[in-house]
């Protein structure tokens, strides 16, 4: 049985916050309060000292569609995000090849991923093992 590491605050920080690039990606369609989740993740990251926070537009598509650019996120950008419906970064379902997505993540040196990406990362790890 595979056990995933728990999410949320930890006693020990494994990366230097000023050197971290954190990416937030939303995938698989809309769900209630998604913007509030994005907002709270940005708040928490900034509290830890992370300055390089980006939103990946339109789910996994944002990793491989060259017409789409990362969206810089900060407290100022997401301050009132919880007042809007939908997803600030947009969503899409599927698409893209796993190797294209992984190449994009590696080339952009993304260290911390949030959202459904943790599920994708687990799937990727299991499928390549």
TrEMBL record:
Pfam families: PFK. Signal peptide: none annotated. Keywords: Allosteric enzyme, Kinase, Magnesium, Metal-binding, Transferase. It comes from the Eukaryota. The keyword Cell division does not apply. The keyword Transport does not apply. GO terms for molecular function: 6-phosphofructokinase activity; metal ion binding. Residues 22-100 form the Phosphofructokinase domain. This is Phosphofructokinase domain-containing protein. It comes from Asparagus officinalis (Garden asparagus).
């Amino acid at each position: 049985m595979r056990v995933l590491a728990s999410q949320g605050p930890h006693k020990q920080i494994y990366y230097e916050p000023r050197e971290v690039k954190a990416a937030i990606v939303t995938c698989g369609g809309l769900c209630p309060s998604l913007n509030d989740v994005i907002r709270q993740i940005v708040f928490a990251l900034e509290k830890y000292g992370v300055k390089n926070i980006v939103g990946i537009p339109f789910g996994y598509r944002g990793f491989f569609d060259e017409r789409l650019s990362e969206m810089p996120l900060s407290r100022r950008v997401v301050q009132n995000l919880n007042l809007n419906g939908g997803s600030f970064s947009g969503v899409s379902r599927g698409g893209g090849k796993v190797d294209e997505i992984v190449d994009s993540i590696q080339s952009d040196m993304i260290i911390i991923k949030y959202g459904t990406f943790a599920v994708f990362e687990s799937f990727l790890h299991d499928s390549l093992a």
